[in-house]
Every structure is written in C-alpha cells, then in structure tokens.
Amino acid sequence: NAGVTQTPKFQVLKTGQSMTLQCAQDMNHNSMYWYRQDPGMGLRLIYYSASEGTTDKGEVPNGYNVSRLNKREFSLRLESAAPSQTSVYFCASSGVFEKLFFGSGTQLSVL
Amino acid sequence: TQLLEQSPQFLSIQEGENLTVYCNSSSVFSSLQWYRQEPGEGPVLLVTVVTGGEVKKLKRLTFQFGDARKDSSLHITAAQPGDTGLYLCAGTPHFNKFYFGSGTKLNVKP
Fold first, then answer.
1. Residue in B33, B48, B101 closest to A42 by CB
2. Using CB atoms, which residue from A35, A56, A100 is nearest to B45?
3. Using an 8 Å Cβ cutoff, are A103 and A110 in contact?
4. Measured CA distances, A44 to A16, A35, A40, B56, B77 (Å)
5. Is there a smaller number of Cβ atoms within 10 Å at the N or the C end of chain B?
6. A1 has pLDDT over 70
7. Sequence-separated (6 or more) residues with CB below 8 Å from residue A36
C-alpha cells in the first residue's frame, strides 16, 4: 500500500545548485502533479501531467522543469536553486474520479 | 492572486463551538473538494461536491457547493480537538487540474 512515494524527505541546497525530486505512484493513475506549499499560501500548482508523455505548466512554473518518465514516475528538477524556492514540495496523483493522493512531502531549504 | 480565496485564514475556538470556513472564486468549477492536512503530511480528501447547490454531510462536517459552482463552505458542528488541522479547498476548472485555496488553520482548544 505505498501509494505516492517521493524522495528525498529533506534537502538543503546552496544557491545555484541543482537537484531532482523524484515521485512514483503505484495506483495506475494517469494524472500526476507537483505542488509547493508556503506558509499562508496553501498549495500552488507547479506542473502537472495529464497522462504519460504530456506535461503542462501550473501557477508557478518558473525555475522548474519536469519529466514524466513513464506512467508511474514524475520528477521535478531545479536547475539553479534560489532562496525563493525554499518550500515544502508535494507530489500527487489522481485517477478517473478526480481525487488527489499525496506523497508525504519534501522539505527543501536553499541557502 | 490565487484562484480560490479561503476565509478565515486562522481560527482558534473552544471545544464544542461551531464554525464555518468559506471558499470563494470568480471562476466556475466542475467540482470542488475539501482536504484536511496534518503537520508533516500531505492533504487527505474529505469530500468532493460536483452539483450546484449540493450539500454533503460527514458526521459533524457539512459541505455545501454554491448554486453557481463558484463557492463552497465547510461547517463544523460542536468542534473537537481532533478537528485541529489545516483545511484546504480545491477546485477543478478543467478536468483533473486542481487549484487550491490558501487554507484555514483551525485550532480547537479543549
């Protein structure tokens, strides 16, 4: 019963470093999402993928890239991290019935 | 600005009190959902409403979707400390694309 698994759980980067957040789901869902959560801002959609091979920008895509590697995996890449990208990142997936299932989050600090 | 505006942002009440949280937008949604999030975890779905005017009850929680499908409310009757958490509304203007409100942080004191 893994559901949505995202790694790492915690990460500290220096400004300008790059990293990739990994996400995998085992529920055979078509749609996958990356959100960031900042205090007082709820969750903001970074990118989403409606199906394997497709990706689309959300509300706050600048500074991020994504890859939908296959139906199970959806990764988020920060090419040159900035302090403004300090946040908690959540990956989620959904199937036909429009219910989001979330991972447990990645707490990222950019110094 | 976010697509969905939630109010209030914070709510601190005594056990046994009633409360209402509002979620408003100028956009029409095909469905609207409410999630609850505990510290250190991802949000968990409470309910989905899809029909304008729809009312759904989940024990002491009552959810309503506005007639025009632009707004929703969550009412909790006789709040308990176990209701403490962050409540988030989420709307889907397009199939399977979810946008979240800013959240309401609820603290229920014993």
1. B101
2. A100
3. no
4. 23, 5, 11, 26, 29
5. N
6. no
7. A43, A44, A46, A60, A85, A87, A88, A89, A90
Nearest-Cα residue of chain A relative to residue B100: A43
Rounded CA separation B92/A64 (Å): 23
- pLDDT tens sequence across A42-73: 899 999 999 988 999 999 999 999 999 899 99
- CA–CA separation, A80 and A76 (whole Å): 13
How far is Cα A6 from Cα A23, in angstroms, rounded to an integer? 4
Residue A91 three-state SS: strand
On the 0-12 / 13-18 / 19+ scale of CB atoms within 10 A, B20 is: middle
All residues of chain B having their beta carbon less than 8 Å from the beta carbon of residue A74 are none
Evaluate if residue B1 carries a pLDDT over 70: no
Q: How many C-beta atoms lie closer than 10 Å to residue A13's C-beta?
A: 19
Identify all chain B residues contacting A33, using CB atoms and an 8 Å cutoff.
98
Q: State pLDDT tens for residues B29-40.
A: 888 999 999 988
Closest CA to A90 of B57, B83, B51, B88: B88
